[in-house]
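STRUCTURE:
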């Protein structure tokens, strides 16, 4: 039985960021190069790329320790010959004794995307890099004038679930490597943890530069990601449907010709069957990228709803954090954010137009808390849910003002 215990006695550091090292034109060139080199990849004349959007995506860089006990199941493949020279294959299995595993995980290998806005797999592929922790800076030293800063959508309470999954994968790979060192000739190795204790000790919120590019292909819109530090490209596998259909049809026709005893009959049957195969392969190749995109969107929506209650506070330090007394408003964006650093009076906040009251707020909440409150109100106040249009218009007006730090500051001053 696997027992996983993730202890959150952690330190939440002030946010850090990475500088853009790749230009927008370079990002487009990297995309063209990657999608042009894929076998059966997208047809370049039908791949229309929009203007790259420079954005900083939120990540958690995590550090901690792992202590566990595991055992392995090792399989060997054997081939023997009988007296007549016929070969017979078989397999044998063995189970190793329980072994301890004591290791650490660091920010160079445990980097978790802290949002639901974009495809998590593609973002991880493009933006994870072992060298990133070496170049972290305070956000006051990062040039973000032409870029969009994305909010942290996951709290540290939600983070533990994703860290548990990622660190368990790392621990499994480490355990498999240990077993492989004693059984180099094994064909397969399975790992079972009898006990696995993960201790998350430090978390650094990091804004990672990324170019987000909207691409039009085959009348569908897709999102591509280019790392702003090294130009790594990630995105959906866009298939050239015409090439895929032709290859499928030719493969079927060739198979019939090769396997059928009468080549003329094989050619006739292959030609006949290759026609429906051509159209099936063509439309399957056209539909696969968009269906996969929609599936991942549904997954992100499900994750967002599943963790909404835990995520409403953004990355406020956990209740057991060593820095729990540190105000969230001081660390929710970066060290010198204009609104988060301003002095808040202990008295009531001015609410001349009732914007805070409309959202059920007091005036000292973070941007993430404002957004969470707005979402909850929409679920009940939207006209489709039985609410009124006037009430919904009031909520939209309040949200437009309060989510913008400059407009919110002006509103709090009574302007």
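SEQUENCE:
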């Amino acid at each position: 039985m696997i027992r996983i215990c993730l202890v959150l006695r952690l330190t939440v550091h002030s946010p850090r960021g990475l500088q853009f090292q790749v230009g927008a034109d370079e990002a487009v060139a990297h995309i063209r190069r990657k999608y042009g080199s894929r076998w059966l990849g997208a047809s370049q004349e039908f791949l229309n790329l929009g203007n790259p959007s420079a954005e900083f995506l939120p990540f958690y860089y995590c550090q901690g320790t792992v202590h566990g006990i595991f055992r392995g199941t090792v399989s060997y493949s054997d081939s023997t010959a009988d007296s007549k020279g016929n070969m017979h294959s078989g397999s044998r299995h063995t189970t190793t004794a329980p072994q301890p595993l004591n290791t650490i995980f660091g920010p160079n290998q445990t980097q978790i995307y802290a949002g639901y806005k974009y495809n998590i797999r593609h973002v991880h592929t493009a933006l994870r890099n072992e060298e990133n922790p070496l170049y972290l800076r305070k956000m006051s030293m990062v040039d973000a004038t032409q870029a969009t800063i994305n909010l942290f959508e996951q709290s540290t309470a939600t983070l533990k679930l994703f860290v548990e999954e990622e660190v368990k994968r790392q621990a499994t790979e480490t355990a498999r490597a240990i077993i492989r060192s004693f059984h180099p000739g094994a064909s397969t190795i399975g790992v079972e943890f009898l006990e696995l204790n993960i201790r998350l000790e430090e978390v650094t919120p990091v804004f990672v530069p990324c170019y987000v590019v909207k691409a039009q292909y085959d009348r569908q819109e897709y999102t591509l990601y280019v790392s702003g530090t090294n130009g790594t490209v990630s995105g959906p596998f866009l298939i050239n449907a015409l090439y895929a259909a032709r290859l499928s049809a030719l493969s079927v026709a060739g198979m019939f010709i090769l396997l059928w005893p009468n080549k003329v009959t094989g050619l006739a049957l292959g030609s006949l069957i290759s026609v429906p195969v051509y159209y099936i392969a063509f439309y399957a190749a056209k539909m696969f990228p968009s269906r996969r995109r929609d599936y991942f969107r549904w997954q992100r929506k499900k994750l967002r709803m599943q963790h909404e209650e835990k995520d409403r506070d953004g990355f406020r330090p956990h209740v057991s954090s060593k820095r729990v007394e540190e105000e969230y408003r001081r660390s929710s964006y970066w060290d010198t954010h204009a609104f988060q650093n301003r002095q808040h009076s202990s008295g009531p906040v001015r609410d001349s137009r009732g914007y805070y009251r409309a959202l059920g707020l007091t005036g000292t909440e973070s941007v993430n808390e404002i957004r969470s409150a707005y979402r909850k109100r929409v679920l009940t106040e939207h006209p489709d849910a039985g609410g009124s249009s006037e009430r919904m218009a009031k909520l939209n007006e309040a949200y437009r003002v309060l989510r913008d730090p400059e407009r919110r500051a002006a509103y709090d001053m009574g302007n």
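REMARK: The CA atoms of residues 4 and 196 lie 5 Å apart.
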